[in-house]
């Protein structure tokens, strides 16, 4: 499992990077003299290129040894983070975030595929859990740690920590990861073919609107707290969100096995996620309880993907990898659009609290599609 741990370390860096920039927005804004809405695009551009890199580059990876592809993608990711820390202008910072997104998007699906091939069949579940769990742990532990380092020094110190983690992962994979072929991520045309199945289209759009709400809100958590909270400690709220995400990602597998009705489970998750967002402004100034909506929000956001994947696999059993990969791409695409729309809302000076209302509206769209799916299909 030592080899799998190296992949998990790489996924840790990806989870860390994907969510830390939102917490660093005030510092980046001050460095480049940009407003919060502009700096928020550093989040959206990373997630956008994360979403599109695997399908766009998959044909170029066909037949390539997995060690080389993983090494190159992690190296690109790490160098891009170095450029982020050194960026003399905001434009170069945005370019570096796009490059980091490409590296992350290539690494993630291949790391998951590789982890299953590095162990015996009876250990595949643990290997997959360890690899995927690396990303959620990167969010839970990495983001608060990164914010603490940023408070002690500056936001660039946090990015340099990411670079160090990336270098360790690259050196570890170079030394210990074997060189073997693997199936590249599904090509773009394979993913688009899935839209011909109406059930798949509805399911991925449910994911799309939920991700718009979740990351669009998360990206601008700092200005939201400044506007509506009497005393805002961003790190504590991100701890609550992150621990909720860890709890949700660990528990969802047991809940799927227990309920055996993933559609019903998704409905419950979406309703709970919507209620948690509604409760943010209502509970934000209550002692202790103010962290509860963030914990539930994190738990439901991270828990939603697994039952969605089960549903898609039941729709397309012969194209399972393509449908799951499509859902993953749409999830990150929704995240990018959510962060972009959030920036537009702030640039129009509509108030940060408006982001909560827009997140709820996006969740309503997601729920309407989910109820339509439940009505048209079975309730499993």
Write up this protein.
The protein is mainly α and 380 residues long. It has helices spanning 2-32, 36-39, 41-61, 66-86, 90-117, 124-152, 155-176, 188-193, 198-219, 221-228, 234-259, 262-283, 292-303, 305-315, 320-347, 353-376. It starts with a helix and ends with a helix.
Q: What's the total number of strands? A: 0
**CATH superfamily caption of the largest domain:** MFS general substrate transporter like domains
Overall pLDDT level: 83
Residue ranges: pLDDT <50 for 5 or more in a row? none
Number of helices: 16
What is the fold named in CATH at topology level of the largest domain?
Answer: Growth Hormone, Chain: A
Counted up, domains total 2
Q: Sketch the major β-sheet.
A: none
Shape: globular
Distance between the termini: 35 Å
Q: What Rg, in angstroms, do the CA atoms define?
A: 20 Å
How do the helices and strands follow one another from N- to C-terminus? HHHHHHHHHHHHHHHH
Helix share, percent: over 70%
Strand content: under 5%
CATH architecture of the largest domain: Up-down Bundle
What is the CATH C level class of the largest domain, in words?
Mainly Alpha
Helix/strand/pairing category: mainly alpha
């Amino acid at each position: 499992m030592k080899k799998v741990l190296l992949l998990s370390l790489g996924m840790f860096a990806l989870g860390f990077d994907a969510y830390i920039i939102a917490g660093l927005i005030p510092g980046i804004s001050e460095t480049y003299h940009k407003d919060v809405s502009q700096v928020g695009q550093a989040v959206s551009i990373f997630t956008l290129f994360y979403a599109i890199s695997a399908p766009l580059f998959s044909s170029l990876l066909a037949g390539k040894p997995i060690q080389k592809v993983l090494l190159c993608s992690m190296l690109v990711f790490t160098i891009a983070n170095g450029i982020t820390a050194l960026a003399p202008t905001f434009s170069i910072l945005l370019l570096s975030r796009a490059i980091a997104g490409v590296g992350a998007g290539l690494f993630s699906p291949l790391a998951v595929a590789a982890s299953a091939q590095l162990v015996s069949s009876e250990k595949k579940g643990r290997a997959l859990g360890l690899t995927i769990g690396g990303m959620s742990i990167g969010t839970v532990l990495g983001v608060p740690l990164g914010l603490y380092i940023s408070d002690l020094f500056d936001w660039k110190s946090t990015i340099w920590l990411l670079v160090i983690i990336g270098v360790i992962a690259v050196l570890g994979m170079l030394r210990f990861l074997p060189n073997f072929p693997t199936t590249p991520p599904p090509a773009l045309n394979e993913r688009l073919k899935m839209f011909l199945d109406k059930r798949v289209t509805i399911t991925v759009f449910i994911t799309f609107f939920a991700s718009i709400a979740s990351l669009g809100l998360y990206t601008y958590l700092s200005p939201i707290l400044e506007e509506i909270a009497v005393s805002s400690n961003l790190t504590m709220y991100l701890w609550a969100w992150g621990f909720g995400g860890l709890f949700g990602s660990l528990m969802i597998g047991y809940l799927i096995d227990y309920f055996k009705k993933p559609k019903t489970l998704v409905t419950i998750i979406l309703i709970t996620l919507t209620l948690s967002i509604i409760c943010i402004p209502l509970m934000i100034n209550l002692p202790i309880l103010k962290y509860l909506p963030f914990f539930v929000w994190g738990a439901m956001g991270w828990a939603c993907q697994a039952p969605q994947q089960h549903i898609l696999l039941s729709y397309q059993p012969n194209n399972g990898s393509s449908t799951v990969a499509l859902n993953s791409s749409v999830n990150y695409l929704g995240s990018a659009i959510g962060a972009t729309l959030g920036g537009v809302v702030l640039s129009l000076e509509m108030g940060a609290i408006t982001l909560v209302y827009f997140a709820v509206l996006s969740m309503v769209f997601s729920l309407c599609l989910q109820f339509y799916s439940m009505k048209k299909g079975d309730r499993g």
